[in-house]
Amino acid sequence: MGPLWPREKGVIMTQQTQIKKITGVGLLTALTVVLTLLGNMIAIGPVAINLSLLPIALGAIIYGPLSGLLLGVVNGVTVLLAPSTAIFLSHNVFFTIVTCLLKTGLAGLFSGLIYKLLGKVNNTLSIVLAALIVPIVNTSIFCLFVFLFFYDLLLAGQGANAFVYFCLTIVGWNFIFEIVATSV
């Protein structure tokens, strides 16, 4: 079988390569959905056991930035369907959707770009940085958007203490867990 189309400078993607990529991204998509759903059901105290960022990082590293973006958006859609998102949806539907899709979508995209840019210099370093960027971008965008668009929702409960608790305890511990999980 001949080449289908040029993928990059001088690289031709064959049908067999294309099928492997579609299959790999499909499997990682299914894994992302399952891990996202499980992450909403399993928690230790206030910390959700979220392993759903792992397939995003893997997909971005193995299959490229656009695959990372796709896996991140799938994760965001799954998060939108989770019961824990209902409070944000009831407060502001538009910014909840934007937050969920953007935080993991950009995390996957940036992960793939970092791997692609640094992979030629140092493969091990590029893998580690690409894996670490996923929870960093995900958590940073989430915290920024909560502060910009949902701060009054947190203040309505317990005032400024609720926001501090939210950022330091729930997001902080979750971030630490995610960074450790993706770096391993």
Secondary-structure blueprint:
Layout: E1 3-8, E2 11-14, H1 15-39, E3 43-44, E4 47-48, H2 53-63, H3 65-80, H4 86-91, H5 93-118, H6 123-149, H7 151-158, H8 160-183
Antiparallel strand pairs: 1-2, 3-4
What does this structure look like?
The protein is mostly helical and 184 residues long. Helix content is 78%, strand content 8%. It has helices at 15-39, 53-63, 65-80, 86-91, 93-118, 123-149, 151-158, 160-183; strands at 3-8, 11-14, 43-44, 47-48. The chain has a two-stranded antiparallel ribbon with strand order 1-2. Strands 3-4 form a two-stranded antiparallel sheet. Helix 1 runs parallel beside helix 3, helix 2 packs across helix 5 and helix 6 packs antiparallel against helix 8. The radius of gyration is 18 Å and the shape is globular. Mean pLDDT is 84; it is low at 1-7.
The H/E string reads: EEHEEHHHHHHH
Q: Helical proportion?
A: over 70%
Shape summary = globular
User: What value does the Rg take, in angstroms?
Assistant: 18 Å
Class based on secondary structure composition and strand pairing: mainly alpha
Number of strands: 4
Low-confidence stretches: 1-7
Proportion of beta-strand residues? 5-15%
